[in-house]
Amino acid sequence: MEQKFRILLAKPGLDGHDRGVKVIAAALRDAGFEVIYTGLRQTPEQIVNAAVEEDVDAIGVSILSGAHMTLFPAIKELMDEKGLKDVLLFGGGIIADVDAKKLADMGCGRIFGPGTPTPDVVKYLKEALPGKREKEQIF
Amino acid sequence: MTVLDRFFEKDRAALSRIISFIENREDGYLRLLSRLYPNCGKGYKIGITGPPGAGKSTLVDKLASYYLEEGHSVGIIAVDPTSPFTGGALLGDRIRMQELSGKGEVFIRSMATRGSGGGLAAATREVSMVMDAFGCDIVIIETVGVGQVELDIAEVCNTTVVVLVPESGDGVQTLKAGLMEIANIFAVNKADRQGSGRLVSEIRHMLDTRQKRDDWNLPVVKTEAVNNVGIEGLKGKIDLHREFLLSQKSAEERLMERARYELNMITRNRIIDTVVPELLDEQTVNYYARIISEGEVDPYSVAEELVSGIDIKKKVKV
Fold this sequence. Notes:
- The structure holds two protein chains of two kinds.
- Chain A is an alpha/beta fold.
- Helix content of chain A is 41%, strand content 17%.
- Chain A has one domain (6-128): Cobalamin-binding domain (Rossmann fold, 3-Layer(aba) Sandwich), CATH 3.40.50.280.
- Chain A is built from five helices and five strands; from the N terminus they run βαβαβαβαβα.
- In chain A, α1 (19-30) packs across α5 (118-128).
- The longest helix of chain A has 14 residues, at 68-81.
- The radius of gyration of chain A is 14 Å and the shape is globular.
- By secondary structure, chain B is an alpha/beta fold.
- Chain B folds into two domains: 39-248, 3-Layer(aba) Sandwich (Rossmann fold), CATH 3.40.50; 255-308, no CATH class.
- Chain B contains 13 helices and eight strands.
- Chain B has helices at 3-8, 12-23, 29-36, 56-69, 124-134, 152-156, 171-175, 179-182, 196-209, 231-248, 251-279, 282-293, 299-308, and strands spanning 44-49, 74-80, 89-91, 106-112, 138-142, 159-164, 185-188, 220-222.
- A seven-stranded parallel beta sheet of chain B has the order 4-2-5-1-6-7-8, sandwiched between helices.
- In chain B, α2 (12-23) packs antiparallel against α5 and α4 (56-69) packs across α10 (231-248).
- The longest helix of chain B has 29 residues, at 251-279.
- The chains are: A alpha/beta, B alpha/beta.
- The A-B interface holds A 1-4, 25-26, 28-39, 42, 46, 49-50, 52-55, 82-84, 136-139 and B 2-4, 12-13, 16-21, 24-26, 28, 31-32, 35, 82-83, 86-92, 94-95, 98, 101, 107-110, 112, 114.
């Protein structure tokens, strides 16, 4: 069977604008990904816990509230703590280029801004994900 | 240290990895299952099924809370459909299960059906086994929103709850075969809506008029999952059904029954996975398809001929 990539999409914090994340969820679903959408107002702990349970290949975070410089690093830190070092963290929202650059330096993946054509996101994930997860000795 | 070593040390990430390994049918997954098998059999499996939008996820969320309060370790498998056109899936059941993680030992896993019919994914049963081996003594399985004939859940679970809503249909729907027959318990959810009393009495009427299979008095419970109303009563009925099952058969009989079922199913699946592709390789299929389509032979004779070629002389004698 062809490898299925699993993507967790999440909206952290108090921001209730979920049109964008739903568009991305539909686009990724239609591109053959298994998308786990966790809904609104998630804490970084909830997001990373869900990522552990779902064994995802990537976490996509949508933030339109301006709190991205707090939330992304918090999520990244928890990911490292929980052993999700080989899981891709990417995102989208109203995020200035300078901030996206800083986030990239912290180990985040691409940040997609308003007006991004959905095939760009699909293409990015299809290139970034194969071979990204470490193969572990199962038993 | 292997993932399995960490699994036995109760590492949740290891449980998650092993579920994926089984779900993806990676090389060696059968050997892994036989390693886990001796640790299985303690978990009680509860199935929640019903039409889309009936409130199954919310019900699971609330039901699981009661089990967590009693100190159980709860595994939840939430199945949503894979698109037959793109192979993708949107798994959204977790949205209704936000508050659970703070309440105790709970592990929620979403699964896509990946082409399997029957309301479950092909690996759902095995994933429930993995959770059982991990130490989840309650495993709740939520099917995709089902129609009338998706009945696999009853095979996998000990107790099956069919969730209906007042909008589910009229009295004739309750008389139809299929979904209505697999229930051990009915939950009429969204019971605050108009028509719930009528649905309850229609289900009761259906139950009164049909042939009973055993001595279990099938309960009909009203619930409002969103408002956490009636859930404790539902849990009470589930626990009662569990006691009923225990009273029906001795432990030896139950183990024998489980062994018979598992052996049958595992062997059948192995035949489908190994013998069938050998027998029906592309070349063979194309060859016979051509002569069947040209009217030279019929498919029944060809199937007979192909099957007669299987050598069962090596069958293990017991």
